[in-house]
Structures are given as C-alpha cells and as structure tokens.
Amino acid sequence: MSEQITPSGPRARRGRRIALPAVVLALVFGAAACSGNGTAATGGGKSQGSAPVRLVATSPPAKGDLTSLTWDLPAGEPTTLDYVKAGDYSPDMVISNLCDSLLRLNPDFSISPNLATSWTYGPGHLSLTFSLRAGVRFWDGHPLTAQDVAYSLLRNMNQKNSPVNGGFYVNVKSITATGPHTVVVKFSHPDELFIKEMATVAGDVSEEQYTKAKGAAYGTAQGGVMCSGPFELAKWSPGQSITLTANPHYWNPAYQPRAKKVTLDFITDSASLVQALKSGAVQGTFEAPVSELPALEADSGGTVYQGKSLAIYELGVTSASTDVKIRTALSMVIDRSALAHVVFHDAASANYTLIPPPAWDPTAIGTYQAALNALPKATTVNTAAAKKVIAGDPQAAQPLTLGILAGDQTEIDTATLIQQEAATIGLNVMIKQLQPLQFSNAFYVPSARKGLNLILTKGYLDVPDPLDYLGLIVLPTSIFNWTNFDNATVSKDVGLAQQTFDNAKRAQLITSAQALWESAHFLIPMLSLHEVVFMNKAITGAPISFAYIYEPSLATVGSSK
For residue 123, how many other CB atoms are within 10 A of its CB? Predict the structure, then answer.
C-alpha cells in the first residue's frame, strides 16, 4: 500500500449560534419521538413539504465598479495570512484573494489553469511538469519565477513551518525549477489528488525573497505577505479589520477587482452581524448565520443565496467501547430531515455517508449513487427496528455522554434532538458542554476524550474528491480514527485509489471500501451543509458555492446597477 495523503491538520470546524423557539423544538422532537416507522425526507431540498431550495454556483454578474466594499469574514479574525499555516475559513478566504494558486478552483468545482498554464505527467505518473504563465508580477513589481513557485511549494514540506496542508505532499520526492517557466514535481508513488490540491492554498505562491526576509513574521499583521493576486494587503489592524486594495496590474482581466478597496470585518456574533447586514454597515458575507435565515430572507434590502458546499455535519464516536449495535441503532433514529429543516432552516440536506454527494467525483456520479442506494442506510426513522438491534445488549442500559462545544446553540439544539430520539429506543444520552480548549483537545488528545462516547463535529473537504477526507478518518493511522477502525481491504482499496488516475476505477475502489467502513458506524453522517451567502441588493457578483474559499471570491463583487 502506498503512503496516504493525510493532512496534518483538520478541516477547521465552527458553528454560528442558532436560537430556536422552544415550542418549535418541542414539536420537532415530539414528532421524531412518535415517528415509529414513518418516512423522513431524504434530502436534496426543503423538507416537511416546503418548496425545494434552489442551489446556484454564482450570483448575477456585477454591472459596475465600487469605490469601497465592506464584507464580514466567516470565522472572525484570521490567525495567519501565511498560506502554509492556513486551515480555516477566514484565513483561506483572505489568502485566496491575495495570493494566486497554481490552478484555480471554479464556482462549479471544476479546475482550470491559473499561474500554471498547463501540466503534464511523466511515465507512471511519477513526475508532474508545470508550465508557468509569463508576465506575472508580484505587487512589488518583481516578476514571478519558477524558483518562486518551487520555493513556495516546498515550504509545505518543511515541518519547521508547521504546514497545515503538508500531508498533501507526503508522496512528493522533490520539487525543482528546471527552467524560467518550468517546475517539475517528482513522486515516490503516483498521487491523483495532488494536482487537485494545487487549486487550494496548498498550491499558493509567494515571493521567495520577501518571504525569507520576513521569516517568522511572514503572514502576520506586522510582516504581511507578498503575492501576485487581485488584491494587495493594505492594512491589518488586529482586533478591528483587514483592508485590501485593488492590484491595478493584475494579470487576469477576468478577475480585475470591481472594488477599489475592501474592508473585512471580524463580526462573529450572529445578532450583531445580522444587524450590520440589515443596516448596510456590512454589505455581504459568506457562511451567513443559518439561525437568522428567516430574518435575512425577509430583509428587502438584501438577498440570500444558497449553493453547493463540501461541508458536512456528523456525530463522531469517540471510543471503540461504544459498540457497533448502539451506533447502528442511534443512526436509525436520527431524523436528519427534521435537523436540516428546523435547526438549519433548510440550509442543509440529509446525508447518509461519510462522503456527501457534492464531494463525489463529477465524472463518476453514477457509481457513487449506485453505492449509496445499495447501503442499508436509515432513510426512515424506524424505532421498532432500532430497538431490535440493541435488544439484549448490556450496553444499552449504560448512559452515553455526548460532548458538544459549550455555548454553541447549534450544537445544543442538535444534541437535544439526538437525546430525545435516542430516548425513544431506551438509550440515555447525556449532554456534556465542553469549554473551547477542552473541546478542541478532544479531537487530538485521546485522554481528552475520556468519559465521552460521542462528539458533534463539522468538517469540510477542500475539493470534490473523497480521498481529500478519507485519509483523516478510515485508515489505522488516521488522526480522527478514534475507534481504531482497521480493515485491511479498506486500507488496500483507499491506497490503490490514491494511485489510480482512471476516474471510474478509482470510484469503484472507493465505493467498495465505503460499504465496509459505513457498516462499522464509527462516524454517523447527518447533514450535507449548503453554502449560504447574503449580499446587499446594491452589490452582486460573488460566487455562491463553497469554492469561494479558494478562489478570488471578492474580485468579482461589484455594483448591481
């Protein structure tokens, strides 16, 4: 088996506060408790009989330019603007507006040329040659060179840099500038995922001279960055805002910024953000708070859009001591459609597999759909069948402790729903709110999970390729394989899939392994989340899909008139 691409850090997780009327929750929980063998909606739009949500990739194109634009960052102030250390919504989004990646991730999740105009594999897919675009300059006027590109990519392989996305480089032997506009990557094993990750921050390029000169300060408010993207970093006022200005010499006219200046705010409180959006003090945001969707949709001064996302909401099993019968029965009584409809206001769809449909390889959707259809998934809430699964199981009498982030209303509401549904089959779920540091440690430190049976988690894939996520969870060495799941066939098939460039064959390998890991129920999928964007009606042009996080998503935002 080849080495696996296993990112060294998780896809960062975060939740907006969601406040729901107690009576509404009581009605939903009551319905779930009494649903018996009733059928729940299987996702793909609004549940409970309401009209389907229309998912779009982009908003209408801008008609004019803006002197200034104010936008809120989806997860507050970034901890860094160094692309090597970025692994969360806010830093990834800001960096993607400042720095160019080798390839571009488009709103429809397709990948196209960017700094690299073309790329060619050598024999056996053991080498990859990038041809670089001529005439590109950094903000300071220095021309982009192949050496800048090789240096930038190699930074992901230097552990001294604490590279968040370094795991995508584990199969790389060398990266060399072989000519003025040519870079060659050599691999120890074929790696079909690597080229796709070059359309994310893992493929970003910075100026070597500047980066070395700034040292540890690179990517900080004091050290700044030096890139070639459509916006320049004008000012970072810690605790207040980040200011970007248009790069007047940007090489790509399609992404020449429509706004001369962009102010990025750090509002994380949902109520405060909604007030700012309604007043026009903030003109737009990605990851709009789902708790406030009814209020935002009712605002005549703005528009709410929903698009495809690669984000998922799951119930993680924290210990192998919670047996598979308990896990299976619990999955059978979770009303995913009620969760999507009431807690997420239809900004999500029911999901039944570790890899949600938006992350399926677009060229092999039929294979993934057939595999999903063949799974014995719980698309209906079936208390009678779930009771039979755990009948006679001594663990069924023991309480299950579910860890959630303290004060996160989304998780509180979700946990309460799970608690009520578990009670219908005689399981006693106890909710334990964990402080932020304790909650974060539970994902990495085994001792921090002591006393927990379950934990709520939100994650995301970078690109629509299951291998982007599988290495984190299904292998014996995976960082989030908390139950010590170890299946030789799964490990073999996932390893072979990583080396397989034929899309159909790779999908067959992945779905074959999927049947095995899903039957273990060591992670219970619940929702495939939608991307939610709000914009003042005076502006338009933003991408709506989750691809916003890795493309220059603010460059196309301009006046709607």
Answer: 6
User: Which candidate, 256, 258, 285, places its Cα nearest to that of 269?
Assistant: 285
Q: Are 465 and 196 in contact (CB under 8 A)?
A: yes
Alpha-carbon distance of 79 to 10, in angstroms, equals: 15
C-alpha separations of 291 from 55, 309, 493 in Å? 19, 18, 40
Residue among 509, 504, 514, 508 nearest 492 (CA): 509
CA Rg, the chain, in Å? 23
pLDDT tens digit sequence for 494-517: 999 999 999 999 999 999 999 999
Longest dimension (CA), the chain: 73
Nearest to 480 by CA among 495, 491, 469: 469
DSSP tally for the chain: helices H, then strands E: 16, 21
**Residue found by looking up tokens 């073999």 in the block:** 492
Taken in order of first residue, the domains within the chain and their CATH numbers are 22-53+309-529 (3.10.105.10), 77-265 (3.40.190.10)
The crossing angle, in degrees rounded to 10, of helices 22-33 and 409-423 is: 30
Region of residue 44 (left: phi > 0; alpha: psi -120 to 50; beta: else): left
pLDDT band, residue 75 (cuts 50/70/90): confident
Q: Mean per-residue pLDDT for 53-81?
A: 95
- Are the C-beta atoms of 105 and 93 separated by less than 8 Å? no
**Secondary structure of 364-417 as H, E, C letters:** HHHHHHHHHHHCCCCCECCHHHHHHHHCCCHHHHCCEEEEEECCCHHHHHHHHH
Which H/E stretch holds residue 528? strand 523-529
CB–CB of 470/355 below 8 Å?
yes
Give the tens place of pLDDT for each residue, 390-439.
999 999 999 999 999 887 778 898 999 999 999 999 999 999 999 988 98
Query: What's the sign of the alpha-carbon dihedral 514, 519, 520, 522?
Result: positive
Q: Retrieve residue 208's tokens.
A: 């070597």
Please classify residue 238 by burial: count the beta carbons closer than 10 Å to its beta carbon, then call 0-12 exposed, 13-18 middle and 19+ buried. exposed
- Compute φ and ψ for 113, nearest 5 degrees: -60, 155
Structure-block tokens of residue 374: 């063949």
Mean pLDDT of the residues in the chain: 89
